[in-house]
Amino acid sequence: MSLKSIDDLFLHGVKDLFYAEKKLVQTLPKMAKKATSTELKQAIEQHLGETQDQVERLERIFVLLDETPRGKKCPAMDGLIEEGKEIMEEAEDDDVLDAGMLAAAQAVEHYEIARYGTLIAWGEELGMSEAVQLLKESLKEEKNADKLLSSLAEGNLNRKAA
Ligand SMILES: [Fe+2]
What separation, in Å, do the N-terminal and C-terminal C-alpha atoms of the chain show? Predict the structure, then answer.
């Protein structure tokens, strides 16, 4: 895919996020299953539902762009998930596992927040108000998920692991 304009970058970013969100739809249930803290399990399950909505929003953006919904391999998301997997395999204690997974989930949220933020800025520049609206809805969910994870970390999760 050659990138010659902001339009190209925008489409590239949508494809990247589409791949990333779909990958998360596969990964979050595995994380929820492994989590021992009920709160963490619930937070992950709640975000799974939101992530499915985010995939649908991206599909709608593909339609707005007159493009077939197709992801583009996102090595960043693959790497973040890979790191999360390592922690899940190597943690020797339930509390350590939870704290490690929480950190991995939060890294994923921060990545997505960065990507959605950029796409919103480009979309605004391109005058794509409908797509921007959809992206803003997803960004709001990501930020809320991040806040929820922070409150769990600041609550007892990290302390229990220490
Ligand atoms: Fe997401």
Answer: 47
CA of 28 to the centre of ligand 1 (A): 11
Dist. CA 49 → ligand 1 center (Å): 10
- As residues whose CB is below 5 A from the ion ligand 1, the structure lists 51, 54, 112
Under the phi-then-psi rule, with left for phi > 0, alpha for psi from -120 to 50, and beta for the rest, what region is 72?
A: beta
| pTM confidence score | 0.92
CA nearest 118: which of 126, 35, 149?
126
Q: Is 130 exposed, middle or buried (0-12, 13-18, 19+ CB in 10 A)?
A: exposed
Sequential pLDDT tens for the chain (162 residues): 688 899 999 999 999 999 999 999 999 999 999 999 999 999 999 999 999 999 999 999 999 999 999 999 999 999 999 999 999 899 999 999 999 999 999 999 999 999 999 999 999 999 999 999 999 999 999 999 999 999 999 887 677 777
